[in-house]
Structures are given as structure tokens and as C-alpha cells.
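Input C-alpha cells:
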């Protein structure tokens, strides 16, 4: 499932609370909303893995994303080598 923005992710997670659907991971690909969307989802009680894919590569920026609740912060462009650790963790926890 692909959600276009943080608002649609938030709506989907609210719907998820009322269903038995399990969401394993969310991938956020927008530098401007990663922190806000992640905090909102965590405040809603979302425990799914949240992965931020962004163009920020400083330690301070990554720290802010992780503190917001991201499980992984991956630098664009995303490739197999960057995605493998997070995909393996998800697979190992299923």
C-alpha cells in the first residue's frame, strides 16, 4: 500500500485501529514531514516500524528523525545495500 502523505498515513492508521489488518512497516519519503508524521503516528500508539528516506545526511538531522520515533533513517537515493538491514530486521521479526 502506498500513501501519498502524512495525513493519509494518519487516516489509514486510525482505520487500522478498528480492523485486524497488520501493518509491518511505514516508509516516509518527505524530509519536511518525517518528524511531524512520525511523532503523530507514535502518539497514536503505532508500533509498526517507521522508516524515513530522506536527503539529510548530517548526524544532527538523523538524530532528530530518530528522536521523533523513526526506527531507520536511510539516505536517498535508496538502494538494495541501504534497504537490506531494515528489510532483514522486519523479516526476522515476522
Amino acid at each position: 500500500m502506498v500513501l501519498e502523505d502524512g495525513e493519509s498515513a494518519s487516516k489509514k492508521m486510525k482505520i487500522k485501529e478498528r480492523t485486524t489488518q497488520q501493518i509491518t512497516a511505514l516508509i516516509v519519503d518527505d524530509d519536511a514531514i518525517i518528524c511531524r508524521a512520525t511523532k503523530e503516528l507514535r502518539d497514536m500508539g503505532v508500533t509498526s516500524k517507521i522508516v524515513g528516506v530522506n536527503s539529510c545526511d548530517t548526524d544532527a538531522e538523523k538524530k532528530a528523525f530518530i528522536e521523533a520515533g523513526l526506527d531507520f533513517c536511510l539516505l536517498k537515493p535508496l538502494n538494495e545495500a541501504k534497504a537490506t538491514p531494515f528489510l532483514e530486521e522486519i523479516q526476522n521479526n515476522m
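The domain at 6-92 is CATH 3.40.50.2300 (Rossmann fold). The chain has four helices and three strands.
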